[in-house]
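Question: does this match?
>
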Amino acid sequence: MRLPVALQLYSVRDDASKDLKGVLQQVKDMGYDGVEFAGLYGHSAMEVRAMLDEIGLVGISAHVAPAELLTDIEGKINDYATVGCKYIAVPYLGENDRPGAANWPAIADAIRKISAVAKTKGITILYHNHDFEFVKKDGEYLLDLMYEELPADILQTELDTCWVNVGGEDPVKYILKYTGRAPVVHLKDFVGSKTDNMYELIGIDKKAETTAKFEFRPLGKGKQNFPAIIDAAVIAGASWVVVEQDSPSMGLTPIECAKTSIEYLKTIM
């Protein structure tokens, strides 16, 4: 494989919450090189690092909300440095926290503070987009406005290729747009298009109507052009690609979806 591949553990969160070490071993056995965290599932940073070292996985990054980091910036970042993370990603921002909204100045300031501490620990702060940042203000996407106000030495990208596509843009072009600022790229497949049930599927809005129009899929089972996406990630200077599937599909368990995705990647990388 031209790039190492990690699994975002949110994809297998229920299994990980019951037996993190067992899941990590399964992830390693499937052929993944690393994992991205979304919480430590009740374990200490030292315990998680010991599991990773024993199994032979790299804990490359973690999704952590700014509000959580702000409770103890130094302590939280130390924890993820102990795990071995080189990146911490803001998983998303609520509507009132995005560029142009009321809370944005405070959020931007928080990201600056977090980034300054993270740098001292060798950690880079990223932003993980969804499709809702592809709304325009003064002719520019909110996502681009964010990256203009917070330059690369403060905030880099973790472009989620599914949400870029759903947002109406070409993932390949968008990755290339941020060449030199795209160290981690999320690989996510789907069928359908923007519908009311999308946010329910990712746990943001439980009130949305459920439809069958949009569905997450294991890689290679949806509409994404992953050979081109991976080529773009290489050109853009990515260090890792991360497989994520927010909810299982096709009658498969989350673990089976993760295995299907890595088996597909082995055929194209």
